[in-house]
Amino acid sequence: MKKLILTTALLLPTALAAQPSSQVAWTADELNFVKAGNPQKGQELAKNCGGCHGESGISTMPGTPSLAGQLPTYLYKQLRDYADGSRDNPMMSGPAKSLSKQDAADLAAWFSSRPPAFKSRSPMVYEQAEKLVTQGSNDRILPPCEVCHGGNGQGQEMDTPALAGQNAEYLVTTLKAFKTGSRHNDIYSRMRLIAEALSEDEINELGFFYQNVNK
Ligand code: HEC
Ligand code: HEC
Q1: Of the candidates 42, 44, 117, the residue with the CA atom closest to the CA atom of residue 72
Q2: How much is the pLDDT for 124?
Q3: Is residue 53 a known part of a binding site?
Q4: Where does heme c 1 bind (predicted)?
Q5: What is the distance in A from the centroid of ligand 2 to the CA of 212?
Q6: Are 96 and 88 in contact (CB under 8 A)?
């Protein structure tokens, strides 16, 4: 019995580490399912989200992300991740758990069809952020952000989100969460590995840089 407990204890961390970061797998069926989401139904359901995310998906609360114009596949994946605990947040797990897969696809269709948030370009220059976005960092083997997130922060199929115009405070919070690992729903640890290599100062600058990018 003692031996069994010990073995279990030793195996547990490995089992946890091997847990997939997300239950969403981008099969052709899953992609078609999300593509077929019904925006009219999504609009109805979105009444439950407007209090925090803004009626048309443009949030005015600093820690709450805008959803307007975001990739539907990305929105869908996040809702599924919150629902099964792959992404953990006390504000979102309640709303997400009450949604069916169909609801999530309908909401994704609705919010992705809304015009994205535009923030006027600030006169500030974000030198180190711009360098990370366009060149990355050779010393740290960091690829440029734009390789995945696009030259205008517009995101990329399937699950690389748009960052352009997103609230800086939210971007900073979520990058820090990737850095510490408290957000760990990125498939293949793509964002955790990157955020780990960034300094807090760079993260702050990157947040404001992307808030001021127009898609
Ligand atoms: C009580 C406020 C609140 C309500 C209601 C709420 N949200 Fe959220 N939502 C948040 C906050 C705060 C976050 C950021 C949480 C985090 O850092 O993980 C978030 C994150 C998200 C994200 C992740 C966005 C990203 O860029 O990664 C999606 C998608 C989302 N919410 C969709 C919805 C939908 C759809 C509804 C309605 C069914 C909803 N939310 C209702 C507060 C709320
Ligand atoms: C190898 C591709 C890749 C590179 C390079 C990359 N990202 Fe990402 N990023 C992703 C993916 C994929 C996700 C979505 C993770 C998930 O499924 O939750 C993501 C998510 C994010 C998010 C969360 C957005 C939200 O709405 O919650 C932020 C912020 C972010 N990346 C910023 C950056 C920055 C800044 C850089 C450059 C320093 C960067 N990324 C480089 C692939 C990449």
Answers
A1: 42
A2: 80
A3: yes
A4: 49, 52-53, 92
A5: 17
A6: no
